[in-house]
């Protein structure tokens, strides 16, 4: 199998990166079907608010262990997502058809993974993902992409489908 991949110019590291993003897409698709379109928007808003809150918290109040930071971030995103009807009242139409819901699910999961990955240093995640994948998720321009692109996608889709 490895010879076949090398023949097509796909290295083992590249295959790992591709597999990671396929898993990310599968989780996004599953999440989109599981929680529905309104909760996807709430999840996206929760990622934005949680990222903003974690960016302004003074360093002395942040746990030193990156795993605790990751758990706290995840719990905050989940709490804000499930409390959104009381806090944000996000009722945007995300998916009148399945494909838009799938794409928004992927982008919401990507934004969450990007924000969570950026909170954890590379040396903690080095056994899980490659340095290149870490750059795709937590690099400076990657964070801009994962935070801005979902909003641009929703804006373009909303304009186009009116």
Query: Which series of helices and strands comes N to C?
Result: HHHHHHHH
- Rg over CA atoms: 17 Å
Structural class: mainly alpha
Report the total helices: 8
Biggest pleated-sheet summary: none
List the helices and strands and how they pair.
Blueprint: H1 2-7, H2 12-56, H3 66-82, H4 84-87, H5 98-119, H6 122-125, H7 131-138, H8 140-160
Task: Write a brief structural summary.
The chain is mostly helical and 162 residues long.
Keywords for this structure?
162 residues, mainly alpha, 8 helices, 0% strand, globular
Structural account:
By secondary structure, the protein is an all-alpha fold. Helices cover 78% and strands 0% of the residues. It contains 8 helices and no strands. Helix 2 packs across helix 3 and helix 3 runs antiparallel to helix 5.
């Amino acid at each position: 199998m490895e010879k076949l991949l090398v023949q097509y110019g796909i290295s083992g590291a590249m295959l790992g990166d591709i597999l990671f993003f396929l898993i990310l897409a599968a989780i996004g698709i599953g999440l989109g079907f599981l929680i529905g379109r309104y909760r996807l928007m709430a999840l996206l808003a929760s990622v934005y608010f949680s990222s903003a809150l974690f960016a302004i918290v003074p360093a002395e109040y942040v746990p030193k262990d990156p795993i605790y930071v990751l758990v706290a971030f995840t719990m905050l995103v989940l709490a804000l997502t499930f409390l959104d009807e009381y806090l944000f009242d996000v009722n945007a139409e995300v998916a009148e058809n399945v494909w838009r819901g799938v794409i928004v699910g992927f982008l919401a999961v990507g934004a969450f993974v990007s924000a969570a990955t950026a909170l954890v240093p590379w040396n903690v995640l080095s056994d899980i993902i490659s340095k290149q994948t870490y750059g795709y998720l937590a690099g400076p321009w990657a964070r801009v992409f994962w935070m801005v692109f979902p909003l641009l996608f929703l804006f373009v889709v909303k304009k186009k489908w009116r």
